[in-house]
Amino acid sequence: MSTPAPDPDTRFWSPALRGLSAYTPGEQPQGTGWIKLNTNECPYPPSPLALRRMAEAVDERLRLYPDPSALALRQTIAAQHGLRVEQVFVGNGSDEVLAHAFMGLLRHGRPVLVPDVSYSFYPVYCALYGVACQPVPLDADFRVRVADYLQPNGGIVLPNPNAPTGIALPLDEIRWLLQHNPDSVLVVDEAYVDFGAQSAVSLIDEFPQLLVVQTLSKSRALAGLRVGFALGHADLIRALSTVKDSFNSYPLDRVALAGAQAALEDQAHFASLTRRIVDSREWLARELQALGFHCLPSSANFLLARHPRHGAARLQQDLRERRILVRHFSQPRIAEHLRITIGSPAECEALVAALRELIDPVRHRDSKVTPA
Hints:
Layout: H1 15-18, E1 35-37, H2 48-57, H3 71-81, E2 88-91, H4 93-104, E3 112-115, H5 121-129, E4 133-136, E5 155-159, H6 171-180, E6 186-189, E7 210-215, E8 228-232, H7 234-245, H8 254-265, H9 267-290, E9 294-295, E10 302-306, H10 312-321, E11 324-328, E12 338-341, H11 345-359, H12 361-367
Parallel strand pairs: 1-11, 3-4, 3-5, 5-6, 6-7
Antiparallel strand pairs: 2-8, 7-8, 9-10, 10-12, 11-12
Helix pairs in contact: 2-8, 3-8, 4-5, 4-7, 9-11, 11-12
């Protein structure tokens, strides 16, 4: 039995830090033999072109600082999205990009509106930067109602698709919200957009208050590289750059810049990877439903599912004992749900087999009996 960690000595901590409840990332187990379906990582390797470019970048040039403007990478992103390079910002993962937006673009005199069931880092950013956070309830089907965001605010942050629900907003609803919320920034967090949602990038030139944030962690299989980017009006991008250069002028190293650019160039690998994940998502949803689970409609690389007769916390623990990791949140509205990352076909099949044994052990046992 493990010994609880002692209470920290906080005498030298700032008052703001003492009252902060930090974000808790998903478990990263030590050792091998685990099936990791808990952190929305990609089950497939990155682009071979990206791996080759990163290997080529590991040479004597590492003694030099990288380009602080990441110009070549930003040019590639701008070209792919039909934007100007001044409309692109890059950072050390989309989490850093979002943090800069919370600091530099959200008004601290009014509350920031976020969905009540959403990415749990948003309220942490608010607490860190002294921004009031106001959760806006999803409806009974866990959907965002954009009309609920028409209230005084210092900014709105909407993940699309939402996490951990996986439900996406249609583009026309984002447009409607922008039309009716002209005086504060709308941040659309598109970490999972490549798995079936409509991107808001096409609205950037029409709405100067729109900032779209994406990442290479999910659909480009580069979670370990830490590269994210933002797209928006040049004035919004200048604000993010000002925050960056007041914090860390070199957030992306030479290896990350090379790998990210190559991954974006390798469109064939990207298309194959996302197609395989979507196919596995649809297969897994059918299999879970056959086991009695209710799955929310997902446009992401995960499913949020609950079983009417089996508690989510217990299922998570039972799966963990079988070396399968899924994510459970204790937040009241989703406390009986599991968030399940879409793994490889073999990983999804192993998950289904384990759940079948846990949910209906008698039938599972009988199905193994060989007739005489």
